[in-house]
Write a structure and sequence with these properties.
By secondary structure, the chain is an alpha+beta fold. 39% of the residues lie in helices and 18% in strands. The protein contains 10 helices and 9 strands.
Amino acid sequence: MLRTQFCDKMHFRARADQLTLQISELSRPASLANFPLDESNLILKAAEALRAHAHTNLGAEITIQKRIPAEAGLAGGSSNAATTLLALNELWQLKLPTEELHSIAATLGSDINFFVEDCRAAVCRGRGELVEPVAVSGSFYFVALRPATGNSTPAVFSQLTLPTVLASSCDVLKALETGDVRQLDETAFNRLTVPASEVNSEMKCLMSDIAAMTGRRVHMSGSGSTCFLIAKSERDAEDLVTLVGSSGYEVIGLLRV
């Protein structure tokens, strides 16, 4: 897992007891689809879990400026939940150690622990709750875009057939450690790409169209539907953003690690 600069923005204000969630008017309209404001939202689930763990009735007014689309495979919900745990631990002056926040995060979802951990990249095992930070040399640049239709993670996993021959991530880790962009592009893989393409034919078309347009390998983030190109440099990434801007797909933008 890699942490990029692309994120939602959240504001927390203490309240006596009630927990509320509202959307900032500065939110990206495309990111608001399927974004609930009730207790089904992972943000409020995280806040309630923290209150229960700390045996407190303290409240907060949470405002979110949404930028990350739903069902995009960019861990928007997971990063928001982790931010909620970290922010409310500070706002409420609970002073819980990181280990306890990890314990709470593990009960809420598979990717939240990565964002609780303060690292640029990590190998995550188990359900994602076992986080092993890894070294990253230099900067990496990606250009992300997606089709109009998002991917349901359960639907993608339901189509997954586990391979009999395992692939190793050792070459990917070496590329990150040495800053070798070409090696990363050549060795990165995602076992969910095939089942995701079966679930979302529009995403399958996107990958084919963008590969033909750019002559580059097109990768998928998480369970999709966001796909991305690995750029050779920041300037190359800027040029790719301009090139794929005419593709008809939603260009999320330049992501930096």
